[in-house]
Amino acid sequence: MKIGLYVNGVGPSPQALVDQVRAAAAAGLDSAYFSQIFSWDALTVAALSAQAAPGLALGTAIVQTYPRHPIALAGQALTVQAVSGQPFTLGIGPSHPPLIEGMFGYSYDKPTRHVREYLSPLLPLLRGEQVDYHGETLTAVGAVDAPNTPAPSVLLSALGPVMLRIAGELADGTVTVWTGPKMIGDYIVPAITEAAARAGRPAPRIVATVVASVTADPDATRRWVAEQVGFAAQFPGYRAVLERQGLSGVEDTVVAGDEDTVARAVAEYAAAGVTELVVGPVGEPLDWARTVELLANLRGELTHVT
Fold it and tell me: What positions does the domain Luciferase-like occupy (predicted)?
């Protein structure tokens, strides 16, 4: 199992986010993933990070689909791939009704159809192919000229059965959030793996994002997470995920405690079938540094267990 850094898209400046990536590379982590949270643009920061930390694999977790047309997103992703020189992972997802409808004014009427129709032109566009796609929810006619640039890997944020089926059939895997090892091992891995097998595709990538902290005060860490992002539990998709796990809030998925506690949790994710664990460290600067140091020490010690 690979281990990477989750870079929250909010910060005082793009350079502050790039500095986190540089620290991850210096520590010896495998990757860094960027979130699009209505602040600094994730793909632009990824391109900047590629120059600051050459050799580190980069990705997004995630970029929302509705606000970006597939042709526009393909051009952005291929640009990051070209400047990085390392495998780039494009993690995408439809986001949530309050954001897509309330902020952008788009209809969230048929999200699963939208995702299937979004991937239909996006994937060939990333391969440099011309598309002439006319679906119910979008139209895409054209191509992206990015010579000698390999197609990025595409992951779909998938937590429900229909999205997992689409991810298995069309994408290279899934990227999860607010999911513990048991849910991943018992539900997500079997569902997406079966869908991929039926479609004749390779075993999917399972990229799990998790909030973690090596800290002497795990309760304070969870309270802080609840204060900062507890509202996410009200989104229908996340509410269903939490209820499936018997949890009341997103803070209940946080991995926090001493080094042994966090190391055990990381091992559980590996045993569940996660191929890449992307950790968002939280807490005071010392806790952040201790967490990254532990992750670097664990890197390479864990293998993917099937």
Answer: 12-276
> Would you say domain 2-298 falls under CATH 3.20.20.30?
yes
Angle between helix 189-198 and helix 161-170 axes, rounded to 10 deg: 40
- Structure tokens given for 218: 């795990």
- List, for residues 212-249, the tens digit of each pLDDT value: 999 999 999 999 999 999 999 999 999 999 999 999 99
Determine contact, residues 197/227, Cβ cutoff 8 Å.
no
Is 154 within 8 Å of 93 (Cβ atoms)?
A: no
> Crossing angle of helices 14-27/285-298, nearest 10°?
40
- Alpha-carbon Rg for the chain, nearest whole angstrom, is 18
Does the predicted TM-score (pTM) go above 0.85? yes
Quickly list DSSP for 30-61.
SEEEE---SSS-HHHHHHHHHHHSTT-EEEES
User: What residues does each domain of the chain span?
Assistant: 2-298
Q: By the 8 A CB rule, do 90 and 155 touch?
A: yes
* CB-CB neighbours of 288 under 10 Å: 18
From the CB of residue 198, how many other CB atoms can be counted at a distance below 10 Å? 11
Q: Which residue has the tokens 């799990």?
A: 208
217 C-beta neighbours (distance < 10 Å), count: 15
Phi/psi for 172 (5° steps) reads -90, -5
**The amino acid at 59:** G
* Rounded distance between C-alpha atoms, residue 280 and residue 122, angstroms: 28
Q: What is the pLDDT of residues 2-43, one digit of tens each?
A: 999 999 878 889 999 999 999 999 999 999 999 998 899 999
